[in-house]
Please model this.
Amino acid sequence: MYYGEDLDLAEKVPSLEDNLEDRIVHQEEIEELGKAILKLPEKHKDLLYFKYILEMNDLDIAEIFQIAPDSVRQYLTRARREAKELMDKEMNKHAE
Model:
């Protein structure tokens, strides 16, 4: 007798439709985030670009902007928060 022979293995296999739906939703979220970032002030866009696209550390970003490294973290937090708020507004418009 095999352990688990009463289990239907087909139930364990992820549905391709679910996977496709998740990927589509994820792609839409990425597109909305991109649109939101484009609406940000130039300084916020630059900070996010240096941090996440160029993968620069806070110290290097601080040197470019001539600000303290702690300020970089504060500005990044504000930029992310503002981008999220803009994205949420757009997503709510599409939901209505």
